[in-house]
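Posting for a labmate who doesn't have an account.
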Amino acid sequence: MTTRDLEGRENLDVTGAESIDSWRGVAPEDVDDVEGTLATLLRSRSRALLTSLLRPHKRTMLWATALIGVNMVAHLSAPWFVGMAIDDGVPPLLDGGSGSIRPILMIVGGFLVATVVGAVTFNAFLLVSGRVGQDVIVDVRHRLSRHFTDLSIGFHQRYTSGRVISRQTSDVEAISELLGHGLLQLTTSVLTLGGIAVILVVLDPVLALASLVVMPALYLLTRWFRHHSERAYRATREAIALVIVHFVESFGGIQAVQAFRREPRNQEIFEDLDARYRDANIWSARLAATYGPGVQFAGRVTTAIVLFYGGSRVIDGHIEIGVLAAFILYLRQFFEPMQELSQFYNLFQAAAAATEKLSGVLDERPAVPSATDPVGLPVPHGALSFEAVSFSYGAHTVLHHLDLEVHAGQTVAVVGETGAGKSTVARLVARFWDPTDGVVRLDGIDLRRLADEDLRRAVVMVTQDTFLFSGSVADNIAFGRPGATRAEVEAAAAAIGADSFIGGLPQGFDTDIQAKGACLSAGQRQLLAFARAFLADPAVLILDEATSSLDIPSERLVQRALRTLLADRTAIIIAHRLTTVEIADRVLVVDEGRIVEDGSPAELRSSGGDYADLHAAWADSLV
């Protein structure tokens, strides 16, 4: 892959295992057009994020700047003391041994005092700046974690887990490097350059003017480096993000990868992405390998010019040899910070690219915002109503002006073909989405006016993909009610009928669940999910295909638990299997986003409509 390829792809945020295939052949100039349009917005957004992160530490940063300022004064005094020693301290000692040793002792004493002050202030600066850097990183991680949690389900459906991990790891680490090492490099380099420039003019303006001979070439070299390194480091951040995304997704779906023999293809994609990351790093290294030696060469040429011209001025008696020695020592120190600034710029570009991504994520607004003036719901009863509710995914309308009343304590099953809108009904009740038009109410209150904690306490959803967290069985049951006692956890498991299989586990309720509960059967995982919901004790329970992945024995086990779970609460059951539907008080048949049948299971079976057809087809499948 060429440098131009990387330049062209640097801002593309790609997802999915086939991402690298999707962008093969993209014209770099097309990407450059997009980049030019977004560049101003991205930079302003990044600056706003960094400003908000650093604003609480303004006083501490001023204190750190003062410390490093004192350190620079002490550090830059060393060549000055050397020049004084050569011109004022040594000559009296060479004057036949009759001179006083006091001047050289005072100069050496001043040198040692400056050294101690420099060491103490540098130590204090490192402690202060290190604390600021770590506080900022903690703030970033907290913001990201809180923001990712607050964002709606729709965001997480399109934003892959690999990209989330990349934001929390490589991007945050890039900012950490900038604050941990870059801040020190920038502050010391700028103060050193400014201080030395002033000192050189004070020592000898003519020599200072002579040392500017190579500055135009150095300026052009620096501009060239900045232009290309900005692209190179953004390409590096994009490349490592793609590597992480593909790695996480491949191993997150390792069963599918192995089942479809995708290992060679996924490895090929990974190697392609990894090669892209390698090429981006090589590009960055090549830039640094050109700029650093270039600055060093310019410094040596300048030193040679000053030695030649300054030596002639010493011979002519225009300056003292100590001044020339101090000037050369300062000149050598002048070019060292310029190389450090190039390293800082590398860190800065990496952090800038990372900050662009982080600020983009943090600027995402939840599609389901929290209520600004929430209405209290102290004792939820579970009455639900849909009033002229419509919902669309983009341009595709899923529900059409749905009107529905569900009484408190009623169990309602929603059936229909795939894509009819069943799960959308469930997600609107749980407020994972808000309706495009109309209102969904709980106990007469618009869900958009309820506080999140009240809604989540009142409405609980159990899906077919039961997620079990790392930790014990008891911890997983208590997930929806962390303050529950051990006795309450065990009582919930017993009520659902999960205690029998839990008792057979190696440590019972203390058995550690690993790898999302892979050691448990599908039925056992579902029973734990039911026990979790039972302990949470919601007013409204939603079962979204909660039994669709179970075999017949497991389904029978779960059916017994369902009767206990659904007692005395409102329930919405989304199901394909009619075994679960038959325990409902009421069945809704949904077709293309509209309710076409509504009645008890017995009534609909005898009506000869869609539900009767579904029931007959289901009964035939059991024979």
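Reply:
Got it, the structure tokens are right above this. The CA atoms of residues 57 and 132 lie 7 Å apart.
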